[in-house]
């Protein structure tokens, strides 16, 4: 994929800075109200996913770190959608015409990269990761936000999703920066998270019944649980023994609905607090830095992952 039009200068440069933490979603179809977060992530819920989702998982998803470039996802989606070579070449050269094939291809890329969902719309912070910004351009966020605000409300009509996904992408493409050439971390989806949990439970010989029976105190003292948490962290790419917690990836995986700066500030504070307790085995260290800091941010079985789970 050629770099996009990137930074453009125009009358919008005079806009005042906007709150980059404000979520863009005009849909009232799904209630995404969440209480003020207690430090944590869905790792606690991941430990119980099999109990909630069934112990027999017929999943072929890869339970490992996924990093993909925008162009790789364009090529994959073009193949899945049988986009003709000439049109694909035009799109990869940076020419984004508003025909239906191009619109739906960009929607497909958004689904693959986790920055678009037909039920919840655009996840801005994930789309932004695919662009390189110009440090000298102080108004790229302003222009992008102004562009997004001009778009119509999210409509669950499938025929309109391609157009809205495409227009949302164009707001970034023409205002935010240039498309990256390198690979970007892609959060795992619900089934992939289930696969990771199932695999880690098998590796460490932990059953759902055992997990369900453990109290908080028992989990704190259970070496197998410590290693299970470490395994999940390693397999999802949010943790490594060498680097510790990757707060950036953790936010990408679990931070939807939370302000980037607030999430990461609270994360650093909690990690600093628990670091002194994280001595000992690699498993114990991972348990303290991940589970003790990041429980209960969100249930990975939610309206975002399973929008029809409540019958709507």
TrEMBL record:
Superkingdom of the source species? Eukaryota
SUPFAM superfamilies hit by this protein: Insect pheromone/odorant-binding proteins (SSF47565)
Alphabetical GO biological process terms: sensory perception of smell
The entry's cellular-component GO terms read:
extracellular space
Keyword field = Disulfide bond, Secreted, Signal
Chief location bin = secreted
* An MF annotation (GO) of this entry: odorant binding
The listed locations are:
Secreted
In which family does this protein belong, per the annotation? Belongs to the PBP/GOBP family.
Q: What is this protein called?
A: Odorant-binding protein
Native species of this protein?
Anopheles quadriannulatus (Mosquito)
């Amino acid at each position: 994929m050629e770099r996009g039009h990137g930074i453009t200068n125009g009358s919008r440069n005079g806009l005042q800075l906007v709150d980059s933490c404000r979520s863009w979603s005009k849909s009232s179809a799904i209630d995404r109200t969440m209480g003020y977060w207690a430090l944590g992530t869905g790792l606690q819920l991941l430990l119980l996913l099999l109990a909630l989702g069934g112990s027999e998982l017929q999943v072929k998803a890869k339970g490992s770190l996924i990093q993909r470039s925008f162009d790789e996802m364009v090529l994959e989606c073009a193949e899945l959608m049988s986009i003709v070579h000439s049109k694909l070449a035009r799109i990869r050269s940076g020419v984004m015409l508003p025909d239906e094939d191009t619109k739906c291809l960009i929607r497909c890329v958004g689904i693959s990269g986790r920055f678009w969902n037909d039920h919840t719309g655009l996840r801005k912070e994930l789309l932004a990761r695919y662009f390189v910004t110009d440090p000298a351009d102080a108004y790229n966020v302003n222009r992008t936000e102004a562009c997004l605000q001009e778009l119509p409300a999210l409509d669950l009509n499938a025929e309109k999703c391609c157009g809205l996904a495409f227009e949302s992408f164009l707001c970034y493409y023409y205002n935010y920066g240039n498309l990256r050439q390198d690979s970007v971390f892609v959060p795992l989806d619900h089934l992939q998270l289930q696969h990771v949990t199932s695999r880690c439970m098998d590796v460490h010989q932990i059953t759902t019944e055992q997990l369900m029976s453990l109290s908080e105190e028992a989990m704190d003292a259970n070496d197998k649980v410590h290693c299970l948490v470490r395994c999940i962290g390693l397999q999802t790419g949010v943790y490594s023994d060498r680097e510790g917690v990757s707060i950036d990836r953790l936010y990408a995986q679990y931070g939807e609905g939370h302000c980037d700066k607030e999430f990461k500030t609270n994360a650093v504070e909690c990690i600093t607090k628990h670091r002194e307790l994280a001595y000992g085995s690699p498993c114990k260290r991972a348990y303290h830095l991940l589970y003790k800091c990041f429980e209960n941010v969100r249930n990975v079985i939610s309206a975002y992952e399973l929008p029809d789970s409540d019958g709507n």
